[in-house]
Amino acid sequence: MTTRKPRSPRTVTLEAFLAGCGPGDDLETLKARQPEDAEWAERAFEGKERLGPPIRLKRGRPKQGERSPETVVKAIRLPVDLLENLREKAETQGISLNALLQLAALEYLRRHPGA
Hints:
The chain is mostly helical. 48% of the residues lie in helices and 0% in strands.
């Protein structure tokens, strides 16, 4: 059995990154692609949507004497491709898959307060 060689993170200069990004899509194309996000952003810009404080998850164990919030273990089924994408995203952000899923749930609740 062969072992996998660990991949080193890819480094790119800012100039190369900006050159690869291109000018981006115009506003109308973005609105058509993500109508819910565009509507939310417009409401937030006009002050009609409440913007919550940034979500911060504490990493590691709680300090001595501090109580951690009660948690529940919940199994969910995810398509393999979705799970792989989530794992890659978590790795690039330097957080665990669990923390990424918690952030996603909090973001959903913030964006859909009536849900």
